[in-house]
Design goal:
The protein is an alpha/beta fold. Among the domains are: 81 residues, Urease, subunit C, domain 1 (Roll); 128 residues, Diaminopimelate Epimerase, Chain A, domain 1, CATH 3.10.310.70. Helices cover 31% and strands 20% of the residues. The protein has 19 helices and 26 strands. The strands form five sheets. A six-stranded mixed sheet has the order 3-2-7-24-25-26, with helices on one face. Helix 10 links the parallel strand 19 and strand 20. Helix 7 crosses helix 8 and helix 10 crosses helix 11. It is globular, with a radius of gyration of 24 Å. The two termini are 44 Å apart. Bound molecules: zinc ion. The site of zinc ion has 4 residues, from loops.
Length: 567
Amino acid sequence: MLKVRKSLIILSILGLQLSCSENSESKSAEKIYYNGNIVQMTAEGAIVEAVAVSEGKIVACGTSEEMEAYRSDSTEMIDLDQNTMLPGFIDPHSHLTQGIFELTQANVSSPPVGNCMNIADVLEELKAYKEDNNIQDGEWILGYGYDNELLTEKRHPNRFELDSVFPNNPVVIGHVSLHMGVCNSAVLEKVGFDENTPDPEGGVIGRNEDGQLNGLLQENAAFAMMAIIPQITLEEKIDLLDDILGMYAENGYTTIQDGVSNEYDIEMLKAGQEQNKFYLDVVSLPDARGFDALLNDSTIEFGVYNNGLKFGGVKIIGDGSPQGKTAFFTHPYCSHGNCDDTSGFRGQPNISQENLNAIVKKAYENDIQVNMHCNGDAAIDMLIKAHEENKDFAIGELRTVIIHAQFINPEQLKKVAELNFTTSFFTNHAFFWGDAHLKNLGEERAFYLSPMASADELGINYTNHTDYLITPLDPMFVLWSSVNRVSRNGVVMGEDEKVTVYQGLKSITKNAAYQYFEEDSKGTIEVGKLADFVVLSDNPFDVDPMEIKNIKVIETIKEGVSVFKLK
Ligand SMILES: [Zn+2]
């Protein structure tokens, strides 16, 4: 053990020298950040005191004294006051454009995100929203984030409850998973669903025992309903975009994602790009459901930044959410505590194998990265199958991303290590839905959720995300959940899969840069890379692991420019 540690220290010193001494010729830097605890993320333990920056890039790093060689009268000296500085956080998966919902809809989430403990609270929240926003009869009322598992009734609200309070407005409340929602009668009428409507493929129209519609729409039935919700104007969206970008900056993210962009989202992102809005790097993943149109659109170029916006790859939705029991599993969900019944409900895919194969083939032929939302292991099998069938069409390095890989099984994990896929995990589930997963999936599967330690051991490039607005946009909470894996009820969701602080940070810095093919310019603090930094209130390596979530971002720096500062 001692020997291993020693070689690790030597390695990290070597790494440190390599990454800081490339530029031996000293010249005046525009800015020098000094007197800090600068965690480079090049290797565990690689720490410097100071870093010199010019033209948005790192020109040197080392001790505060060494950086004097880069100082001139015009150099701005920034005292880090011994605070911890890291590479700017890279968001491997969230939903930038859906963040606009948060600003235009009622928050019907349960704590800690919102205030709803029961269905009456949900209705009260919607009523208050209607009043505060002076919403007239006939106008839509939208809410986001309810979670049936966290309401005291342990069920979804229904159309009758919504009708009783809002007989004259179309009302929709979105489930926290974004894969289902409940609407009232006015909306059912608008979308054209009645008792005689069959369930669409890959979707469920909820019904009571007597066959009456209850307002719950899942997966493709929910997506059909969402499609008729009136859009706010492009100008309104662009205004709100500033607020959303501000939230990402406040949380230390310097590269951010729009995790599924439909045609309206792309329209808004392009407008933001034209209006020079993107002071953070934005990676958009266009929805595969519009793939043909995208490939024929000459204004969309994949894989390169253009004024702050990059189309990073295509996004496929493979299945639903495990807490909503719409994720697609090889073995059924547990029923009334029985996890051994092999004939039970396994969830279902959102896409046929045939369609998936066609999209993967097109992506490979056009050298476009595949990003697929897969929560259950059966959905992951579909992706592996589509890859195997189409791998000969690939013309470049793939780095396929399994978004969530929440319930990947040990065999699949070995397979994706061979294939050099990235698993973009979601360890926040341990806290938010760990208790529900234990009940619905049993201990063996639940304790192996987002198996980050095993992925690290296999040499997989893993990242870790918030899936905002599914969980709060807070990278310190993400780190906390990967290091502690504690549920709301205090259960440790798999002791063996806890990771170290360094491993947890890798998943939101250097590994995320690799996921985006940006490891040459981002993810570590080294000479030649972008001066993207985040300064924290406390050192995550020093605090009690359970306190990590209380660490605050005190400054965010994008290419040498301060874009957020805590007041
Ligand atoms: Zn997502």
